[in-house]
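Hey, resending since the last one bounced:
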Amino acid sequence: MKINNREFNEYLVLLYRFALMMVLFSICRLAFYAFNSSMFPNVTFSGLMIIMLGGLKFDVSGLLYLNVIFILLSVFPHPWKFSVGYQTFLKYWFFITNGIGIALNAIDFVYYRFIFKRTTSSVFSIIKNEDNLGKLFVQFLFDFWYVPVFAGSLIFLMVKFYGLLKPKPFLFHKKLVYYPLALFVLVLCAGLSIVGIRGGYKHSTRPITLSNAGEYVKSPEEMAIVLNTPFCVIRTWRNESFKKMNFYSDESQLAGFYSPLKHYEVTGEMDKKNVVILILESFNRELVGSLNTHLDNGTYKGYTPFLDSLISQSLVLSNAYANGGKSIDAMPSVVASIPALVLPYVITEYASNNINSLASLLTAEGYQTSFFHGAPNGSMGFQSFANLAGFQKYFGEDEYNNPDDYDGMWGIWDEPFMQYWGHEMTKMKEPFFSTLFSLSSHHPFKVPEKYEGQFPKGTLPVHQCVGYTDHAIRQFFAYASKQTWFNNTIFVITADHSTVSHYSYYQNIKNSFAVPIFFYAPGNPIHKVDTAVAQQLDIMPTILAYLNYSKPFLTFGNNLLDPKGDRFAVAYVNGSYQYMNDSVLVHFDGDKFTGYYNLKTDSTVANNLVGKVSDAKLEAKVKAFVQQFNNRMIENRLVP
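The structure tokens again:
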């Protein structure tokens, strides 16, 4: 049925078109929740209604950012404003800017499952070094076809209803009335736009940021529902990564609560064993059967039979967590003990800071150091960070130089590249330190054609890829175990970050960061399960303690071999610092504590006790950690 155009007051038409986008953004919010409802198990109907109402404030702000030019051009008084050409220009400007807004919201229907937050402007810095974006985009459209279909449907509705009302001039024939009135409306619209963008009219009101979404939720992860993606991208554009904190003006008082400086008291010489770290792409802890004996009434097998066999001979951290949610977060956390707080370290303005890492510290002790990643050189900024961290050699797709083993999307398949890794290590002079970052357990979740059907497909597309990578690790260890350097090596196996999970146990703000971490020393195999909280940041200080390292260094982690160590794990979630120990998980937005969860009685992190209970000593420690991290980053004090 054809919708007839009807002419209305130009200002009412403008208000109608803005209201149309408000409705479409609310539909996007409901769709975001529907697509990811399993990630928000504690949202009730009444809670969702509060979230929807709170989200209107962020939609007003986000849509004003997108439409400020359209609004000003629509109300600016001039004689040709109602000409066909001018109105056509306005129409397509509206379609393009708001179509982008809808598309950004729709992308997070899926992307949220992988990064556990709304997309921010940092994504553009992350992808700028990738040369396979075209392939990834096509694969995304194919695998998640329902997302572009949904977004396209909303864009169709936007186009259809945009022209339902047609603007007509208001008193245009009375020039002496029209122009003063139009100028008044222009000033009024400008003022209201500023109020809407800021989120309030009071002089004391700060422009709303991502953290303001916490006012409408009971749990910090629910902030992602309140927000919209265009707002998150725009509000984080060119923001300062870190702000200087001054909770404690006295350095000795600050260090008394928390200090990242370490200097082990050791006896004897350094034990220069080889160190090998394997960082597994998208391996959440759920995938490893031996770390999940509580699932399926103890019958759960997982998808990593070979890793399970290594775990039976290793020091295992069964309560370990990643310090970020993306691949780019992991390398600084694992090899340099620098967490991904606010932004991934490698894309901040402080990425050129002087740092110490396992590579730089061990190089100074006579180690040969190397980093391996089978993607095109430069991908994810890994090669750049490897240089800054002090790795002597980088081995990527260019060095591998065999396109026959290319997976068609990301780089070299894990099995042949791990074999290459093993052979290159055999050429190195001992002692050596080498790290490999795998890549095959990644979307679009394929395995080499010869292995199709050989690994359990499980309940998620990633499961067969995990089985393939586990097989690749088995083949690597089959080679490595025959080499003379094998028994003189300490292996560390972890993951870069968690990923989509099947069990509700892993679908909360705590366990969405859960990853495996274990230490395997074939020359001295032991089996010990450590159930205390651990994190990627702890790998570097633990390795240095294991090697009997005696010099000062800086780390934001802890020595896992120290029974008296202060164990905790940190992350950054929806504009807040997440700090967790064995008993409590808290959220701190840099100004106040917004979340407090008793992990002893609330393992699913469902009951926010902020305002009801507090722990002054813990809160002081969290503030001290944030101050140490932010201020040292800003002041380039990341070495002793």
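The two ends are 73 Å apart (CA to CA).

Sorry for the duplicate.
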